[in-house]
Amino acid sequence: MNRKAQFVSAVLKKKGSQRAAGSAFAPVNIALVKYWGKRDQELNLPVTNSLSYTLSIGTHTSISLADRQDAIWLNDVPLSLEHPIARRLIAFCDLFRPDPATYFQIKTKNEVPTGAGLASSASGFAALTMAMNDLFGWDLDRRELSLLARLGSGSACRSLFDGFVEWHTGSREDGLDSFAERLDVEWPEFSVEPWILSSEQKAIDSRKAMQATIEHSSLYAAWPAKVAHDLSALKRALFDRDFDTLGAICENNALTMHATMIATAPPIIYWTEESLRAMRLVWQWRKNGLPIYFTMDAGPNLKLIFLKKDEATVRTLILSSKVYYPTSKCL
Ligand code: PMV
């Protein structure tokens, strides 16, 4: 048995009773202190802890058994089984087939553009894990689901929880202590919204980009200590409800992550001219007195961090900036 299969059987100790179909919704999460780099590529174990905030938008997935081969629909369109997204989903499903001749029909719908650095893989793999739990009647708790979702996409383990969530790197080689957990913080005023500048698929996926950064960026050596520092400062700011300190930490953490990528040879740059224009606008708005910050992931889009009382102002500013990609779900 390979390590992934061993991991899955260690989590799936209890056998469930299978139903005809399963379905689930999982939300997108946005990291405030980022996960960038794996200590174990096979089991998706991160070099550092990370901390995220869960949004209300996400992915709806349903799953049932199919006759002769897997069939996947993404946003109501049948996906070729050779498509990179289909291959990733099938490889994940392979971990859970009771026998090799068990096939699945999966229908998945994303409320955010797919593969554009908007965390669709996090909500996607979390929703698929929960839908399988429903189909197979595993009856797993959130922590166990978080462990399994992590195998699909590291950040997916944080999409099992709402609010502020920490993913523990863990220290075990078998990865059984690397799961996410909700922090005991309620902050209804806090808000994170994607500012979509491009919905194009990214040129290099985060999995490849983080490995290239580890191997070919001289700045990566400083990243683990930076994360440890930012995590403890951010938690303090979170428990104190100190919005400006928190926003400044998030923004700087994201820019530092991008700096490690830019210093990779050859460079990895997810930003477009629009991204930079949007960043400058956020800095200008802040200078003018609006408490607003951004974070960015492996893509050109920004995620704006602000307080709910300023939502109308933020929307007006974005519309007047003319730097936006129109969508009903996001700013
Ligand atoms: O889970 P992955 O492999 O899609 O990596 C996500 C990496 C970032 O989104 C850039 C950071 C994070 O912590 O979510």
Descriptive notes:
By secondary structure, the protein is of the alpha+beta class. The protein has nine helices and twelve strands. The strands form three sheets. Strands 1, 4, 5, 6, 7, 8 and 9 form a seven-stranded mixed sheet that branches. It has a three-stranded antiparallel sheet with strand order 10-12-11. Strand 5 and strand 6 form a beta hairpin. The longest helix has 20 residues, at 243-262. It is globular, with a radius of gyration of 20 Å. The chain binds (3R)-3-hydroxy-3-methyl-5-(phosphonooxy)pentanoic acid (PMV). Residues 31, 34-35, 50, 121-122, 153-155, 206-207, 297-298 line the site of (3R)-3-hydroxy-3-methyl-5-(phosphonooxy)pentanoic acid.
How do you describe this structure in short?
Helices cover 37% and strands 22% of the residues.
CATH class of the largest domain: Alpha Beta
Bound molecule types = (3R)-3-hydroxy-3-methyl-5-(phosphonooxy)pentanoic acid
Helix content: 25-40%
Order of helices and strands: HEEEEEEHEHHEEEHHHHEEH
Shape: globular
Supply Rg. Answer: 20 Å
**Structural domain count:** 2
Which fold does the CATH topology of the largest domain refer to?
Answer: Ribosomal Protein S5, domain 2
Strand percentage: 15-25%
What's the architecture of the largest domain in CATH terms?
2-Layer Sandwich
Number of strands: 12
Segments where pLDDT lies below 50 for 5+ residues?
none
Secondary-structure-based class equals alpha+beta
What is the count of helical runs? 9
| Spatial separation of the terminal alpha carbons | 47 Å
How many strands, what sense, and barrel or not for the largest sheet?
7 strands, mixed
